[in-house]
Amino acid sequence: MPIGVVLRKAPGVTRWADWCWRASAVLPGAGPADWRELRREGEAVEYHAATVTLELHGAETEAYLHGLGSAVPSVYVIMREGEGDAPLDVALVTASPYEAQDYTDSAEEIVEKVPMPPGLVAWVHDFVDEFHQDEEFVKRKRGKTRVDLVQDGIGDPRIGKPSDIYASPALKRRRML
Fold this sequence. Notes:
This protein has four helices and seven strands. It is of the alpha+beta class and 177 residues long. Strand 1 and strand 2 form a beta hairpin. The radius of gyration is 29 Å and the shape is elongated. 20% of the residues are buried.
C-alpha cells in the first residue's frame, strides 16, 4: 500500500539545532509527493515529503501482532540524511516494531514512531488474520549419546602431569630451584 509521510519542521529548542524535524503523520493511499507543503503554523511547516510502499510479509505476522497489541498501534518511518536539496530521505515505512528496532542499531538511520490511522490498523489486522499461524512450542530433548566418554585430545604438551594443571605459581618456582 502506498503510504505518504508527513514531516514537520519546527524551530529548534536549543542553540545547537536550528530546526527540529519529525515524522508527524502518515497518509495511507497517498499519491506521489516530493516535499509538497501541506500546512504552515507560524514557523512550523508540515510537508508531504515522500510516498513509499508499505509491504507486509507473511513471515512477520508475529511482529505485526505485537505492534497492533500496543496501546497505540504505530508504523515506523525510517529516514536518512538527505542527499541533494532534501534535508531527509524517507527510506522505508514498516508496521513491524522488530524491523524498526533493527534500524535503530546504527546511527545512520532516524526511526520515528507514528500512530496508525484506523483504516491502516484494519488493513494490517486483516492481513494478520489471514496469514498468521501460531507456532507450537516444542521442548528440545537431550540425545542419548554420551559425549563424556571420549577424550578428543591429550591436552597441552607443555603440561608434564595432571597435577601441574592446578599447581600455584609459587609451587612451580620452588620446583625450578
